[in-house]
């Protein structure tokens, strides 16, 4: 059974098995529904929404559960509180990704199965999954931001006319809005007009991850409970809505800029890996001797290195593209592995011996919003190291197998056999070389024995040809017998495993470096939030902390700890938060929060109001600088895979050209012409 048949069977099973599983599940539910009214109603309801029903089924399968939850968590930003819409979008996106992956496997690997195409197929599956999901989610997010900006403009206009926020929300809902935005607007309207606002607000904030919608709801609830007032000749609610609209516009521009500036970098890092097989064929068609280079040890290792560098650059570009709001997810596999007694004991011992670094790592993970613990990160590093070590071992064995196949199946160094007087014997010599190599590859023979055997058989009549064939056979047999897994190759594999052990930690440090660049922008955003709330009556410091926590990324862990300790002592909690951070603008902001104990919030943050006009321009400029700095750092790396592919094309051709010239010079010299 060849590779094509095996892969075709796997793809067929991947398509057929889910369908069979769904059919079995449906039959089982029908059987249960015969004597169960509740089940019958559920099935009738599910029939109207088959995607939601399929989503529920696949969420029960451990293999697909984490993948679907990963996609659905992104759509929670767009369709909060609407599980059916989230399920529909998730299944459509998962189905699109699956079809693209199947088409990619068919085009890259099934048409011509080899090592290069196998690595390419696996790599492109990873890229397609990421890029398709990111594209559709980012497109939906940008569209939602655009519609939110228009919706809040309409609410502001309607509120300016009738001064009733609930009526303003209803009047702002129109047919031009997308279904997602309509759902969000209706949910907010229901909460604003609800008799149990506190419970509904708490439930909405727990299920919704869109910070701008949360902020809008907070402003609406505040004006419903405490009323509005005139500030600097304008209604405060109108000013706040305008400020919120500016915040949304900044995020919209940021997303558009990120989407544009990094798109070419991803293409440059990934697309260059696709023509590697074509380059290999092109080189061999020009010079058959290049087969020993492309299919030999150096060629295989260099191709693997190209894919590794391309994947690392791709991951770095994705991390530099945007520091996404982290979604809560469970590391189920790591959690189960961590509970094993001997693993748990080993991790505990390591954590006790390295208590200081573990605490610092825990704080770093909290700041990044990671749901993984330091012990789980260590376990992840061990698993990564083991996988890298295992793959390296397999690669070494594959290289030896490929070298053995070259020695026993092909003769590509024809220039050594086509000396004067032996051109017509070339094909016969090649056949004899392969026959004798395969016959004596496991035995200890000498060149004289091979020559005697060739002379007895009489297939070659030229003594020079016999000597040349015997010499080539002995060289190939020696090289064949030397193709085995060596001790220094084991050391290399161990070194690769150790190097990969620190990769998860290095990625954490890289993300921390990127996140630190946004600290200034985050503090400016805090000031904008405070400005929207500082003139409202009955607003407390705790209210400010809650709203800041919604928008926080870098300072979220610090703010959460302060909020948890706030009821035990407000000033003490703020002082502790101040000591935890060393960033000067954030410390100044905390000082102003502490001053609120003595004077009003409005007076504590009067410096924000004086510099308010510059905030929007500063934040816009700061965003552009941060994005451009990230792009400048990552764009040179994006061309590294392309440079390596260019070397893969040019260097072997250059080598064989120089070698051919040297051989020609030697031949001319031996003939006495030069």
Explain the layout of strands and helices.
Blueprint: H1 3-33, H2 37-47, H3 50-58, H4 62-75, H5 83-110, H6 115-162, H7 165-172, H8 179-192, H9 197-207, H10 211-226, E1 230-231, E2 234-235, H11 236-261, H12 263-270, H13 276-286, H14 291-294, H15 297-321, H16 332-338, H17 341-353, H18 355-368, H19 374-409, H20 426-440, H21 447-457, H22 463-481, H23 487-501, H24 503-516, H25 519-533, H26 541-551, H27 556-565, H28 570-580, H29 584-595, H30 601-604, H31 606-610, H32 612-638, H33 640-670
Antiparallel strand pairs: 1-2
Helix pairs in contact: 1-2, 3-5, 4-5, 5-6, 6-7, 6-11, 6-15, 8-10, 9-10, 10-11, 11-25, 11-32, 12-15, 12-32, 13-33, 15-32, 15-33, 16-19, 18-24, 19-22, 19-23, 20-22, 21-22, 25-26, 25-32, 26-27, 27-28, 28-29
Describe this structure in words.
- With 674 residues, this protein is mainly alpha-helical.
- Among the domains are: 330-507, no CATH class; 518-638, no CATH class.
- The chain has helices at 3-33, 37-47, 50-58, 62-75, 83-110, 115-162, 165-172, 179-192, 197-207, 211-226, 236-261, 263-270, 276-286, 291-294, 297-321, 332-338, 341-353, 355-368, 374-409, 426-440, 447-457, 463-481, 487-501, 503-516, 519-533, 541-551, 556-565, 570-580, 584-595, 601-604, 606-610, 612-638, 640-670, and strands at 230-231, 234-235.
- Strands 1-2 form a two-stranded antiparallel ribbon.
- Strand 1 (230-231) and strand 2 form a beta hairpin.
- Helix 6 (115-162) runs antiparallel to helix 11 and helix 25 crosses helix 26 (541-551).
- The two termini are 56 Å apart.
